[in-house]
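User: I'm putting together notes for a lab meeting next week and I want to include a structural view of one of the chains we've been expressing. I don't have a solved structure, so I'd like a prediction I can at least talk through. The sequence is below, exactly as it appears in our construct file.
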Amino acid sequence: MKRRFSPGSSGAVSRARVDVDYGARDHPHVKSPGRAHAHAHLPTGPVTFLFTDIEGSTRLSQELGEAYLEAIGRHHALLRAAIADGGGIEVSTEGDAFFAVFTDALGAVLVAAVAQRALAHEPWPGDASLRVRMGLHTGIAHLGGDDYAGVEVNRAARIAAAGHGGQVLVSASTAEQVAGTLPAELGLRDLGAIMLKDFDAPQRVTQLEVAGLPQAFPPLRAPRPGSLPQPLTSFLGREEVERAVRLVRRERLLTLTGPGGTGKTRISIEAARQLQPEFPGGAWFVPLETIRDPDLVLPQVADQLGLVTTRGRPLHTVVAEAITDTPTLLILDNLEQVVAIGPELVRLLEHAPGLRVLASSREPLRVDGEQELPVPVLDGSLAVELFIDRARRVRPGFTPDTAERDQLRDLVERLDRLPLAIELAAARARRLGVAAIAEQVRASLVELDSGRRDASARQRTLRGAVAWSRDLLSPDERRTFDRFAVFAGGCAFGLMADVVDPGRPARAVLDDIEALADKSLLDIREGPDDEPRARMLETIHAFAAERFEADPEAALVRERHARRLLSFCEEIEPELTGERSDVALARMEAEHDNVRAALDWALVHEPAVGLRIGGAVWRFWQQRTHLEEGQRRLEELFEVAGEQTERYALGRGSTALGSVRYWQGDYPAAQAAYERAVEHYRAVGHRAALAGALYDLSYPVAFLGDEARAAQLNEESLRVFEAIGDEAGVALVKEVQAMLSTMSGDFELAAAPQREVVRYWRARGGLFRLSDSLSMLALIEIRLGHIPEAHGLLEEMREVQRRIRDRSSLAGALEVRALVAFAEGDPETAALCLGAVQGMRDRSPNMLVPSEVLGFYDPADGLQEALGERFEALVEAGRSMDPEEVFLTDGLAAHVV
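Assistant: Thanks for the context. Below is the predicted structure for the 897-residue chain, given as structure tokens.
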């Protein structure tokens, strides 16, 4: 479906019994089938999972020797007795790890407390300290064969793994279940959100505090939400990091300043890493080296934070409302080319009291409240140690003698002790000795001093180091180095050869890339779908760009770049809604700056290329909330496209423009653009594109009130899809049929085709389409009174959303969750969901939701009756929350109620 909107009682638990026989099944390295298999069946539906394991069990077994078997046996006995007394079921035991399940969340929490008390007071052999970490999570249990399977079990296990020995971590859903019912000796302390392995969305956890037991533990074994890069090399220069940490704690806007190559970015990352535990809202790294337009800075911030950026209120308001007073750290890297963003940052800080900004720039922002921290070059001894450390990465065992250390001191002084310049020189230690490196650097700098004098001494030094490194390359490597500058933000290996030098074998170009990486002139890392990506530091990229301008083929290289990006976008287009759409979206995200560069070229040289790119990537713009940028770029391309522009490209561009306007809720503009697309496709006789355009057009036509014409368009689209054998197209049309039946109030008639559509997308594996179709079917099932079926569809929608992170569909998804929660007796969650929908409408006033366009009832009246005065407060709370968090968070009401 094309969506219709834009964007048992536990009782008292006794102390565990210990008089249990220790059999072979309890040996720490023997997997037990578990006690649960003695039961007729494992419970399904809402349950609470408990995972436990011993911290440092390997070390403990080495310390205790044979006594470890006795200790592990008593550990097993204590846990089994506590689980049994608390009404739990032991699902399985593997080594020192237990997995149990409870039908009562409070009982599970009490068992964890009793077990920790018993373990703490047990006299262990050899006065050992046996510390067990535990994790509790309440969710819907599903069986896979004779055991549990599914995401909720994995979530519980990951929560347990994030803790420390003696600590009990409790998920948000479990905390909600037991809030207000715990005995006086137990309490819950909110630890904020963490990122769990294999889970994209942050997970909020609390700590169970048991009177008389330790309550202070190290930071959790899971990162806070955020996006800090993972450097591949060691860091030298702790003093500057400590200064930055102190200032961030004191000031709300800190700017690290200094010339390129002084290590500002690395200091920012290391400082943020130390500060991360102090920021429950996360530490978010926002790279800006490819951004030249200040208007794109806040969209880049919102994108990193995962926020919806639709038309409506100013972006600083949207970002501020997502942060509010939650301590959050933004690391804005390479801000010098967009310093005009300063006043907007000040407004953002004024509206978000929990926010602090750590920026790096070659010059200060010069705004109120800014604290500048100039980053000096390294001191002499540290500069020498940096050279040695980096040289050992290319020549293990590198150990300079006394004479070489004297040469190194002279060398780093000539390089002005700039970290980047030193690293470039050290990369040559693979084949050259210190004396040879020093001589080549000396010659390069002398030559440079006789040339450019408009740069500072340090800038000349850095340019000299880069120039020297380039001069030592082979002719082919130099050409590859220069032409790599055409790529914005780096690129995947598969895109390089056709752009850099199509006359040479692709393998030869990639060999050049690897040689440049060996010499520290660029960096290679694994990208989406395990495809390597290469990128240059901005300082090196700027030098390469200067050299590229002197290339007589520069214009041809730029054209090849734009055409290669066009082919990349058209190749990946079907994958954006396919089985691996999550991977396809990540690949598009990685190349987005290159797409922007290709569109810039097309705007000047060949609009048809840009219109075709827009036709291929609009789904990415939609799902990653770049709709405003997409609209602007498409409208600019249409302004310069003339009558000579090929009609197929005009059709592709019209489809894209209609789609981005549709997802912004501007149905008249969408209808006009889609009608132009139909006209262009009829003229060129492209049947598949025509069928798709007719299908697209049927939606705004229907939502603007002409359901009869929408049905006619749909019938024509179906005839074409059937004629060309396009099964996916037929499924899309059937969904329109279900939608039109729904709009007329015939939900029974709508159900059959929509169930068929869902079955098709499940079998086909198209995650985006499946998510869309599940939403429609869930709403139909709710209207038919099939609440359990709707609940199952909702859970499936949430799992798909965790994979593809499609924020454009959240309004409908939130209404589904609100309706299901209300029907299941959870009015608090329903009100929060309605508030989140209203928050989206604040940002996109034209947006329509299913309750309006599909004839569904609005549950607001019933919720007001159920909640009384609390209704408005809950709606307002949901209104200010991240809509994706509202949709995905288990135990949502526990965060607010």
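A couple of points you could mention at the meeting. Confidence is low (pLDDT under 50) at residues 3-40, 446-459. The chain has 38 helices and 17 strands.

User: Perfect, that's what I needed.
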